[in-house]
Amino acid sequence: MPAGRIRLTPQGHEVVTKTHTTTNAAHVAGEATLDRISWIKLSSVTLPLATPISDAKVLTGRQKPMTEVAFLFVELETEQGHEGIGFSYSKRAGGPGQFAHAREIADNLLGEDPSDIGKIWTKLAWSGASVGRSGLATQAIAAYDVALWDLKAKRAGLPLAKLLGAHRDSVRCYNTSGGFLHTPTEQVLDNASASLASGIGGIKIKVGNPDRKQDLRRLTTVREHIGDGAPLMVDANQQWDRPTAQRMGRAMEEFDLVWIEEPLDAYDAQGHAALAASLDTPIATGEMLASVAEHYELIRHNAADIIQPDAPRIGGITQFLKLAALAEHHNLQLAPHFAMEIHLHLAAAYPIEPWVEHFDWLEPLFNERLTISDGRMHVPSRPGLGITLTDQARAWTQATHEAGKRH
Ligand SMILES: [Mg+2]
Fold this sequence. Notes:
Largest sheet: 10 strands, mixed
Helix content: 25-40%
Number of helices: 14
Bound molecules: magnesium ion
CATH architecture of the largest domain: Alpha-Beta Barrel
CATH topology of the largest domain: TIM Barrel
Shape: globular
């Protein structure tokens, strides 16, 4: 007979009620609500890139080649000694602004129960309400939000994907970092071979060259090189107008692409919808959008077959989960943008088989490596996100701010 209490039902039958015998304080009902956030550290970290990076936005003259990525790291500690780490980021301008906003609102977290992530998100949003519910201010909140989810999963002793409710232990992955427009075609081919040999499942290359024939020549070469069976995607980084996107979309149908990404301006929901309706190749977009509300405009216009949210850009994991529910309701596929260290967990928890984007750029920041095999990236067994900052990341720190007291 199991350990427990015997009680009588109203009909007089004896039933045994199991008693919980765990001695783990974190699992005792009510105990978690006694914990409070007691220390916060913000770090502004600049990650230098080995080579200046160019996508179509550079070739059309709208941006300069990218030489670094700015990260906003949040480290949290609670009175009971639980810890969390999260991050947001900015490419080109915006990093110092994210850090400044996060510093300004930091004190709002002190004394809050770290489990009350929804309440904290709302409190932080109201604390900076006059600067809006999207964009830079929301991305500062995202770093806190990710750290709170990491803390919650660590306290539960679970990888974040498991805390959220995973559908799978690994996610299909494709490489992006090897196929930028500054990279000569021969090198793109070598990078693709190396990615596939390492177990990565698909290859994405950048397009949107003002010389459209050059895009098609390069795509032909890559497709021949990797073979018809290898998943292949292209990304125009918003640099086509509607007629060009239509023409290029038709020309690319023969390549059997998994998707065409950002063919049009990120906010042109109707243009994307017309394209998605007219092409067989799926349309993917959403990485540039800065809130769930902006994504909802895409969804309600049927603008994409595959939605590509970026958790740090839309306000963190709390907002990502709201968007994931909307996307699932509309039967959309999911391929989150960048930050695979976060998005692997979120994609694992999405019901419809997703993709996760492999970038090797962030590797110098973290001590851990994600395991990749048979075309898939595996959810780490470590609790939380499963990341810790390297000494090199500490050395690249430009500014820090602390609030509260460390135990
Ligand atoms: Mg992209």
